[in-house]
Amino acid sequence: MHIKYIFKLLFLVFIVSCNKTHKLTKIKAERLEINETLSKNATVENFIKPYRANVNKNLDSIISFALDTYSKTDGDYNTAIGNLMADAVFTESDPIFYLRTGQHLDFALLNHGGIRAPISKGAIRIRTAFEIMPFENSVVIVALKGEQIIKMTEYLSQYGKAHPISNQFQLILNADSTIYSATVNGNNIDESKIYYVATNDYLYNGGNQMTFFHPNDGLYVLDYKIRNVLIDYFKKNDTINPKRDNRFIMKTK
Amino acid sequence: MKRILFIKQATSATVALGLSGLNLQSFSNTTKKITILHTNDVHSHIDPFGHQHSKNPNKGGIARRATLVDAIRNENPNTLLLDAGDIFQGTPYFNYYGGELEFKLMSMLKYDLATIGNHDFDNGIEGLHAQLPHAKFDFVSANYDFTNTVLDGLVKPYKTFLKDGIKIGVFGLGIKLQGLVDKTMYKETSYNHPIEIAQDLSKILKEDELCDLVICLSHIGYYYKDQPKRVCDLNLAKATKNIDLIIGGHTHTFLPKPTVEQNSEGQKVLINQVGAYGLYLGKVDFYFEDGKKTQSEGTQIIV
């Protein structure tokens, strides 16, 4: 009994002393680049292969055809690719929104920076939608009073970028960037009316300094990624030929 | 069995030496080396970037990382491989497989531990939960409280490892989710202040768990220039003690070498982050020698 107890005590002392007897004397750090000088681990590479093949097969499937190349630098205030995106968000989201709320959308607004790649002439693949929209942003519908829409038009006039707007909305600027006219479905903006505007969650949360989405009169989350909007739109339209038009322009003298 | 035998011999040796002889012969006077390897914000970058990529042509790739990790482990089996979060989101692999491939591959590379980044909630907390069976490594987060979520009990605040007799404690820290991630994604995950939690955890790891090495696996971000007082790794380092290394993420900060900060007691803390996308592997070697450190002895830092 006695001896056992002493052993136990010694064991404890041993453990404690063991734990406290390491001193950190040196730290050496380096950053190692992962590049082509490293061979690929065959087991890992072979494991990835079927996944990669499946993803690529799907991404490479052709879903539409572009008559031309469309890039976000093709216009000052509106571009063919931007018009296509805003119109696609409008036409793909409106039926869902109507089904849920009994209301129709008034128009859609996106941001110029959100167009991450051009559409090249020829085959449009699922990969194209991933290139244009690599982010996971989704459609949200914001109920905004006319006074907030006026703030939006002021923002668009001052920002001077071709932020995509759908064709229900028209904004014409004077040569000094002040607003000449702003209409929704051909009507002047009514300060007290509620407008239903489709945009994405990034902009709703103040991205691109778009502060006019707050305060608002309601938010509707569609759970519909912008990328999927594009994929659905391409699948429904076997040929696309978007145009730059007069929805957002600066008046010439 | 061998270990028990060793202890018995050691205790008999103690008896033989008498109680004063605590500087046991059985502790050989050799240097022990612990290697910490780390990644962060890999964002589903499984394949290398293409040859024509404008920024990172032909860089990255997990199959190459596997080769490097294997070589380092062969050289030093006392190695830990850690990830500081945002494993998910960034390539179609995530959109098609929801993170399954990322976790399976990290398991093949024998990752030891990871923490949770904001993008790991991109398929919702259920999406993360659904992929956990594919991860053969654990997740730690000390400041996310998952009590009322599907992750309850599945994510521990910290984990300890014993490598060559050196005890290593690693705890996790996550970024504030409100305003960054939609509430419908993170659900009832509650967020506690990282610095207060780190103060508690580092004390537990040092004093209760008696760790020789304390590592914080952080996804709170390196530093925010426009908000210098915001919680970040640099501020965390200064406001805490007992942490040896902070492995960071979130801000995609490409540090060519670790930053050395002074903690609340004037001791040195290393902060490291290797940018994003698996372009780099961070490597920090810790050398230990037997015996207690005296006041005058410092730790040599070669970065």
Description of the molecule:
The complex is a heterodimer of chains A (253) and B (303). Chain A has 7 helices and 11 strands. A 4-stranded mixed β-sheet of chain A has the order 3-9-5-10. Chain A has a 4-stranded mixed β-sheet with strand order 8-7-6-11, covered by helices on one side. Chain A has a two-stranded antiparallel ribbon with strand order 2-4. Chain A is α+β, with helices and mostly antiparallel strands. The longest helix of chain A is centred in the middle third of the chain and has 22 residues, at 80-101. Chain A has one domain (62-250): 5'-Nucleotidase, C-terminal domain (5'-nucleotidase,  domain 2, Alpha-Beta Complex). The mean pLDDT of chain A is 93. Chain B has 303 residues and is an alpha/beta fold. Chain B has one domain (2-23, 32-302): 4-Layer Sandwich (Purple Acid Phosphatase, chain A, domain 2), CATH 3.60.21. Chain B is built from 8 helices and 14 strands. Chain B has helices spanning 2-17, 62-75, 92-97, 100-108, 124-131, 183-186, 194-208, 233-239; strands spanning 32-39, 79-83, 113-114, 138-139, 144-145, 158-163, 166-173, 190-191, 213-218, 245-247, 259-262, 268-272, 280-290, 300-302. In chain B, the strands form 3 sheets. Chain B has a 6-stranded mixed β-sheet with strand order 6-7-9-10-12-11, covered by helices on one side. A 5-stranded mixed β-sheet of chain B has the order 4-3-2-1-13, covered by helices on one side. In chain B, a hairpin with a 5-residue loop joins β11 (259-262) and β12. The longest helix of chain B has 16 residues, at 2-17. At the A-B interface, α1, β1 and α2 of A face α1, α2, α3, α4 and β13 of B.
